[in-house]
Design a protein that fits this description.
With 135 residues, the chain is mainly α. Helix content is 51%, strand content 0%. The protein has a domain at 15-98. The chain is extended and about 70 Å long.
């Protein structure tokens, strides 16, 4: 059996700090995503990675002092990860429109499992006698 984690997180003394750092990274990711959408809506093109890094550095200095605990390399990794995922998403959409790939993007469509063996439940009902006063 494989061990899922190398270190147990709940026994460390700095668990709160690690949790806060993870929350801050998520907050940066969400901020970058919203910033990119706003920029695309206004200028009709995506924002560059260097511009995002400069923007986050300004935010660390001015309005988000709790982001100062994060190392700059971690913030740059978050930005780079977002940019790669954005580019891969749009590249896949372009390939799908051109017919080069059929790989789906998004959540899978799951059919409901209410039918038993592919038979509709309406076929198992008994018909009501006509003229019996029902309905």
């Amino acid at each position: 059996m494989r061990k899922p984690y190398k270190f147990k997180l709940q026994n460390q003394s700095n668990t709160l700090k690690i949790g806060n750092m993870i929350d801050d990274m998520h907050e940066i990711h969400v901020h970058i995503m919203r910033l990119d959408r706003r920029y695309y809506r206004i200028f009709d093109k995506n924002i560059s990675i260097s511009r995002i890094n400069a923007h986050v550095a300004k935010l660390k200095k001015r309005t988000r002092p709790h982001w100062k605990d994060l190392p700059s390399q971690v913030v740059q990794d978050v930005v780079l990860r977002y940019a790669k995922s954005r580019d891969a998403f749009f590249e896949n959409m372009k390939d799908r429109k051109a017919g080069k790939t059929t790989r789906k993007v998004g959540r899978p469509k799951i059919k409901p499992q209410c039918f038993c063996l592919g038979v509709s439940p309406m076929k198992h009902r008994f018909p009501l006698p006509s003229g019996s006063g029902y309905l």
